[in-house]
Structure formats: structure tokens, C-alpha cells
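[worker-b] picked up task from shared queue
[worker-b] task type: protein-ligand structure
[worker-b] ligand name resolved to calcium ion; SMILES cross-checked against name lookup, match
[worker-b] sequence length check passed
[worker-b] input payload:
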Amino acid sequence: MKTRGKKDTRIRYEGKMPSPLAGGMPATHSRSPRAGRGTVLVAIIIIMAMTAMVASSLMFRMYAEVKAAAAGSRGQQAYDAAMSGLNRVIAIMKVSGGNPEVWQDNPQLFLNQLVATDGAESWYFTVYSPNPGDSRTPCFGLADESGKININVADAQTLLRLPDMTTELVDCLMDYIDADDVARAEGAEQAYYDQLPVPYLIKNGPLMTIEEAILIKGFNAQIVYGEDANLNGILDPNEDDGDDGFPPDNRDGKLNLGLKGCATTISYDYNTDGEGKARVNINGNQSDLGKLSETGLPEQTVTFIKAYRTSGKMFKHPSELLEMTMQLPAPPGGPGPGQPTSLSSGVGAEELPAVLDKLTVLPSDGATPQVGLVNVNSASADVLMAAGLDGDVAQRIVDARTGVPAELKTTAAWLYTEGLMDADAFKAIAPKLTGLGYQFSLRCVGFSSPSGQFRIIDAVIDMAGQTPKILYLRDITRMGLPFSLDVSATKAGG
Ligand SMILES: [Ca+2]
Ligand SMILES: [Ca+2]
Ligand SMILES: [Ca+2]
Ligand SMILES: [Ca+2]
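[worker-b] inference finished, payload out:
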């Protein structure tokens, strides 16, 4: 119920998210893809105690130790080293964003990188992210947020396929995000949150971070962060000992990364081709269809698209053109001898990549973001299954992709051209997929040797526009040392 005519005392969590298990530091996070390219969004860190989130004694102990390590000018130098890492990441992504081999797990670029040395003390950074294939060691690189399910736009079936989701959680999530005030069968709208001991206003709009989901009825830190209580992406002993040590876990030898491991709120790209030009809308008007001749697609395909549109039909997705045929209207008196009765699109394996790259079914000015496509080049098997693929196919995609050259992976076409699925299966899933990702999350520890000062940042960068943006930045030093920082083994270079 909306309170009218009275001062609204409910808390508005605009841009402030409850933070990990220990409670603590909500961050503001500016994000506005629609603000246009070139807008520099500045992320600000606000340190605010969330008394509602009570921390475990373990985490408080860790916080006290880490606070001491982070204090003082050396702590600041460690922070600067971590920020150097973030800037290095941005510079590397500018030139190699399309090639996962460069940024996904690349110790040469991201492990123990020397920033500065004064002889007695040297400063380094290491960039890391959870390793989907091995929970004993992190990836030295970035995680592609486009390789996750965007919960702001995913449908109920997709959300339900995410790990640990239930109908009730999905209903509550969708109610929290949708603009209306009508609760789903098992959902909750503002009326529920008004009755809480500390009422707060719900979003009724897209979430800015996955952490914000903790505010939703039924959600908690465990659902969001899974078993990775210290956010290092590694299965630590206390994360695999059941209830013996915080956090609770299922002792199965695997690290459940929770919603954060497979869901995102920030994946988007612009509806442009590989050269940055607006795609041609095959559901558009004559002017749009006139641009088909500039796409380099075969004449047969162009003719087919125009004939299909002239017949009054619209395309569901450019992938629909794959192996597509249409019946031609019979001329009066029936077709003459040798006269074709159907038309073929002429789109097979060879043409598919260009069809997906050059065409769209949406009005395209090249500046409108399309939100939530899943990048088949970085999604885990769990994410691909949530997107709608069956488990076998999902696993085969994950197994096959390292062997597929980067230049073939700029669209999702390789799933068909490399024989992982037939035309019908590909066409069913293709509208949800992309071969590109532009938003990346990373953690970066800046540290000194030999004294061992360190600071850790958790960040998301957006490479979709002309100017890279930092969408999110948070100091997570209080989570503790993520892994042993040993520079002697690598003889780091700058
Ligand atoms: Ca709502
Ligand atoms: Ca961990
Ligand atoms: Ca445990
Ligand atoms: Ca586990």
C-alpha cells in the first residue's frame, strides 16, 4: 500500500546494496547504458554499516586483522597498485576484447604484475576471477558478465532453471523488478515490504547489481554468494566442511558460486555489426530493406527477405533465415512447367555468420542497447542450460569452444557451423545468444613484497561504448587475502 499525504519513512535502496555475508559496505553504482556512449560514469564507494545484516564472528575477526593491514600509507599504495591493475585491464580490453584467450585466464598479463619498486619494497597487482572449471585455483583474468543470465530481462522459465531457484523466488524477483503493483501467485509486491519491521521501497525497475537481490523476499546472502563466503572464487576449507565452519555448505567438493556465478544485471551490447555499423532491420520498411544490398549478403538471400516481407510476414530473428524456404503464391492457372513453387533463402553454414552479424529484426540506430544476450563463448554449461539448451549440448559447447578459432566466434553461428546443433535447434535458441561480451567483472589485489600489504577491489567495466566505463567499484579487502601472494615463483615483469 502506498502511503499518501504523509512523510514516507520507508528506506529507498537506490544505488545502495546490502553487501556480502559480513554486511558492511554498500556501493553506489551508476549505470545507464541509455545515457549514451562517452558518458563517463563514476563509481563511488560509500562505506556504511548495515546494522540489519549481522555478521558472523569469524568475519568480524577477519575484518579486524585486515583493517590493520590496509591502514596507513602503505595500504593506500596497495590500493593504487590494485587500481593500476584495473587500468591495465581496460587498456588490454580495448585492443583484445573480442578474444577470450587474451583476457579469460592469462597469468602472463594478470598475475603478479610489477607496478613500482623502490628497491626495498615492490608493488604488484594480480587480476583474478572465479574459475568455472576448477575451484582450487582462480582464473587470472576477467569474467564475462554476458556469459551469465541477465535477471532483469530473463523470462520465468529461464530464471527457474538457475541453481537453487524456486517458483516462489522467481515470482518474488519478477515482482520486485516489474513496474506494476500486481503480485504473482507466489510473489510479493510493495504491500509485503511495507509490513516488514523496517519497511523499504521496492525497485519496480531493473536491479543494478546481483547483490541487490538480497533485498527481495526469500533471497539471502547464501543464495546470492553461494558457498564462496570470502569472494575469492576458490573452495576454501571452511566452504567445504558442511556446517562445521561458516558458511554453510554441502561438502560436495565443489564451490557453489550462487546467483553471482551465473546471473548478472548488466549485460548488454549495441545492435551493431562487427564494424560498428547499425544492423539492417529485416522487419523494417522499404528504406531498411534497401540497405540489404550493402550487407554483402548473396543476392538470393536479399531477394528472399524482400519476397517474404512482401508476402506480409515478419521474421522472428535473423537466424530464421537458416535453411529457410517459402512457398510462392501460385499464379492464376497454376505454375507453368519448370516454374518454381518455392523460394530458398540460400542461407547455410557459409552465409550464417554474416546473416547474424549484419541483420536484426529490431529497429536499429546502432545506439539502442539490447540487453541480456548470453555469450556462447564464455557461458558455463549451467548458464547455457538455463538459457534453454539441454545438458549434453551445453557441455559439448563448453568442451568444443576452446578449439574453435576466435575469428569464427564473433557470432553464435559456430554452434551450427561446427555441427553442435542442427538448424532447427539452432534457430530455437539463437535469439537468446551472442558471440560477444562487453561487460566484465574482475577482482584485483594490489600488494607489496616483502611486507605483504594488500588491498582488493571488486569491479565491473563496460567496454560497449567508445569510452570504457567503470560501472562498479568496491573495496573488498575485508574479505581477507584471496590466495597466497608469492611473487618469488614468477619473477614478475611489468
Ligand atoms: Ca512490481
Ligand atoms: Ca572462497
Ligand atoms: Ca562450511
Ligand atoms: Ca559445495
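[worker-b] attaching auto-annotations
[worker-b] The longest helix spans residues 72-96.
[worker-b] releasing lock
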